[in-house]
């Protein structure tokens, strides 16, 4: 049984359809990535799943007592509020010094507990938010564009951290990103969203779907190959001539029958 | 006799300062200064209606301030910009209040007291209203403190922690309505926002935690109320504005102290 699922979720905003009968589910331990162009409803879907927004139609089902660790797209920090990292992590409840230190260490940010939140860099703040999400001992970790504002190396490191967190906590991960190359390589499943679910399935399957290519072009197929090479040795040769073989690669690895389109 | 009404004025000033200072921190953090202003303007309509219908003024102001908060947030949810929604609601309320007052012959002169406050005219029953309101507001803030901090930082994180941001915003509006109702008598509708914001802003310069900022704002607010009252007594200046002037001076002092501290920290030796 899935931990978290949405069934026929429709969200309207001032007459405009943001999400149209979206189905999605998350099983224990898997990493699912939500991709889609700007304005495709990714953040809205995430907010519906964590309960921050009520769908106009359809329903969201969570296993009873599900612990969700949520890293939102952004937190509006106003320098008018003096707030240390430690105090922020104690909102709305205290967790004890040791657990806070452990969560910060796991998020890769050991020495900032006494620092002011506004003094942190974008990458540090993202890791503080990750630490915050880890403090609830999550069964599901939800990350909405968590690497926004990080450079290529920074976001790759962040996603590596997510993988190690998943391994140590055995939690499911749902993330939103438009950094397709990095994210897709780390995912078990990809859901391509554009108001409705265009297609979903294993990363290489989705990357080869016409619906996906219509949205993102074929260029990401090459990037996918580039980043997947250590997961999948078959593609090693592609690595050397990425530009020449993008099409070939994408077509070879894709088995459209195994992917499934949303109704 | 003189002593007694000074004590009453001091108690009223302290009560208002104790409630408005910590709430003012949220007004600063959430950038609600204009919202506070709008609520205060609308409260004048409450005063006018209460007097016209012979209801207690506090009831009228709380109700109108609450209605104001509700109208503004629902206009905001319907896609009007917050700024515009506030401007429309606040100034309409103020204008209606002035029109209503023009129909009440005895009231036109008395409007000054509600615009600028009249701390020295505070009666025993006003004092009760002020302190009951202040205790309610401080209790509400203490009860919802962590939730309000989190909702201010991120409504979505609050939801993930099981807090309903809409409910918290409603409670915050309620607290603001109560503060407006109890301070309109003391500093007047025009200066209520300054009583909320100035002590909090002064405290910001020196505080390193939200709790510290609220506590310091209370100290600054109470000190300003008492010193302002003394200034007004000895120099025969209007009381409400005197209180705000003292608060403004403490804002400057706090920032100067903070600047000096920073220089000491950064200069070697």
Shape of chain B: globular
Quaternary organisation: heterodimer
Q: How many helical stretches of chain A?
A: 11
CATH topology of chain B: the name is ABC transporter involved in vitamin B12 uptake, BtuC
Amino-to-carboxy terminus distance of chain A: 21 Å
Mind telling me the CATH superfamily name of chain B?
Answer: ABC transporter involved in vitamin B12 uptake, BtuC
Low-pLDDT regions of chain B: none
As for the CATH topology of the domain at 73-137 in chain A, it is Helicase, Ruva Protein, domain 3
Proportion of beta-strand residues of chain B? under 5%
Strand fraction band of chain A? 15-25%
Secondary structure: number of strands of chain A: 10
Mean pLDDT of chain B: 87
Chain pair forming the biggest interface:
A-B, 25 and 27 residues
What is the strand tally of chain B?
A: 0
Which structural category fits the helices and strands of chain B? mainly alpha
Secondary-structure element string of chain B: HHHHHHHHHHH
Question: What kind of sheet is the major sheet of chain B?
Answer: none
- For the record, the count of structural domains of chain B works out to 1
